[in-house]
Amino acid sequence: MQNLSNEVWVFIEQRNGKPADVSLELLCKGRKLAEQLHGPLKAVVIGEDVKSIADETFKYGANEVLLIQHKELKNYRTLPYSRILNDLIIKFSPRIVLFGATVIGRDLAPRVASNTKSGLTADCTELRIDTITYLGKECKDILLQIRPAFGGNIIATIITPDNPVQMATVREGVMELSPLEKPNKSKITEIPFLPDPTDALVEIIEQFHQENKVNLKGAPIIVAGGYGLGTAANFKLIHELAHVLGGEVAGSRAAVDAGFVPHERQVGQTGVTVRPKLYIAVGISGAIQHRAGMQEANKIIAINTDPDAPIFQIAHYGIVGDAVDIIPKFIDAYKHKLK
Amino acid sequence: MYNSIVLVKQVPDTANISGKVMKEDGTVNRSKLPAIFNHEDKVALELALQVKEKYGGKVTAITMGPPRASDILRECLYMGADEVFLISDRKFAGADTLATSYVLSEAINKIGNYHFIFGGRQAIDGDTAQVGPQTADKLNIPQVTYAEQILDIKKNKVTIKRKIDGGHEIVRAALPVLVTVIKEAADPRPFSAKKVMAYKGAKSLTDLEKLTEGNSLLYTDTLIHEYKERNLFISTLTMDDLQLDVDRCGVKGSPTKVHKVESVVLAGGNQTRVEPTKDGIGILIDKLLEDHILG
After folding, report:
1. d(CA A46, CA A68)
2. What percent of chain A shows pLDDT beyond 90?
3. pLDDT of res. B124
4. Residues A97-126, buried b or exposed e (16+ Cβ, 10 A)?
């Protein structure tokens, strides 16, 4: 392949005129990737009256914003948004395009990747540029897309060696937010939007927004329960312990699937990534997808009946035993110490 | 009358990994994981069956996978699917989501005559949620992902409640449309005992070939004829049946390649074991208070 572009693009997701946190986090990561490729970082901003978002992206390292504004684009809809990106990507063929692994990103990125025949890797936990040898061929400055796979039992490094465009999605909280002290010199390129009859195939009738009251990302203490608790009744112990310690309740994916705890409180690769001061994992076996979301906690306590559970390998303190027995003891001891 | 095609997938049960499936070197023994019907796809089938019951029509379930994936097609028949197809060819192996969606979209074009394509939001082995939207793109039809409820279907339009980041929205989509569902959308019905009796002997071409291999008195062609007559033949669509471009299938048609796979090896950490007693826990809490982790 010759004459590959060295541009890194980030799709900036906006809801009600505000950029999503994950998009800003991706700009910070994209800035580092672009430096390595010696290319520009470009933000794609789509919406109605969203110039202020374009300005904001410069603080995070964008060199240029591709700005598409139209009243038809106020809310995200698959068909017009994907059409815009398809056209831009086919025209400019950027080397890397990053999306947040949100509902919008997961709806949009695959459709665009299909249309532009690009490689796409979902839920990456790490992105890196490197030169590697694949099947005896040197791939220079290729994007290494690293993600747990197969239920988290393996870590796969995915590459797109033969296509000009490499795409990846990343969950919120995975990449660090690091605004620039002094924004780059930058420019805004307005791109006209041409409405199309297919845009009307799906109409939004109504939207309901619930303020997300759960703030796992910012919680200093998290008590998380897993499938090992066995019943919803036992899961109440997690709430009791969290309440006493002044922490937030979270769960593993298995606990969410079992209905013990809502999805907003899921920690892990397909949930939230957290970095609390204290993380207490109760009845969580510790598959890597879960660990990917909590292993950077300052202190980890694991409580599990299975002494061989993988969670013990990353825990600072391990207690082998039944939560039903341990948690009340923990609560008693804590209350007693505070007296 | 609305016809649905449902995309289903057989997946390794990766959801519950315990110490039991761990090998001594600290990696997971993948062969110990059972193959199951991806739950969200079962929810998709349930939704298609509900549409059929309310409005009439036909439900066809398809899966792309190795011959043993016919297990879940039988399960589709037990739940009430009218017809099933196994899309299988050695040349499909190693497909990423782009190559998979190419094969699926061509199979769907071949089956034709549909108003809805239903599928689970994602399969638990990859969790990518990409095949749905990529299939919709190739079919050049709209998509509604993260569907939670079908509110109503009329005049060739469907009204759907779907999950979005921080809430819900209601959208109205023109048919035909591809819909991916989340688990809240429906509770899959149990297998009908009558249908299990009727279809438990349903076999695919590979199943029948296995029968003839072990018995020289049986001929595959005769068996196919017989199973078709009894409505027990699971049709297989291969690369040739679908007249596919080999460059767009399998590993060859997949832009993403696996460069490296590392089994997760759990090395021993610097962990402090805490006695599961009142005293043991008391010491731990003292330490946490001292380190200003608690309090």
Report:
1. 5
2. 80
3. 87
4. bbbbbbbbbbbbbbbbbbbbebbbbbbbbe
Residue B285 contacts residue A333 (beta carbons within 8 Å)? yes
pLDDT of residue A122: 95
pLDDT at residue B232 is higher than 80:
yes
B256 vs A108, A121, A269: nearest CB = A121
Q: Tokens representing B255?
A: 């832009």
Residues of chain B contacting A114 with CB distance shorter than 8 Å: 98, 101, 133-134, 137-138
Q: Which two tokens stand for residue A98?
A: 């990053």
With bands split at pLDDT 50, 70 and 90, how would you rate the model's confidence at B166?
confident
Nearest chain B Cα distance for residue A25, angstroms: 17
What kind of fold does domain A221-338 have according to CATH?
Answer: Rossmann fold (3.40.50)
Q: What does the alpha-carbon distance between residue A115 and residue A172 come to, in Å, rounded to a whole number?
A: 25
Contact yes or no for B119/B136 (Cβ under 8 A): no
Tokens 């095949």 locate to B131
- Measure in Å the smallest separation between the Cα of B255 and chain A Cα atoms: 5
CATH topology of domain A8-201: Rossmann fold (3.40.50)
Closest to A86 (Cα-Cα) out of A165, A143, A2? A165
Of A227, A310, A316, the CB nearest to B16: A227
Query: Which residues of chain B have a CB within 8 Å of the CB of A333?
Result: 278, 281-282, 285
Instruction: Calculate the dihedral angle through the C-alpha atoms of A27, A133, A115, A32, rounding to the nearest 10 degrees.
Output: 10
Whether residue A305 lies within 8 A of chain B, CB to CB, comes out as no
Domains belonging to chain B, first-starting first, are: 4-248 (3.40.50.620)
SS3 B230: coil
Give the residue carrying structure tokens 């759960």. Answer: A214
Do B102 and B138 contact (CB within 8 A), yes or no? yes
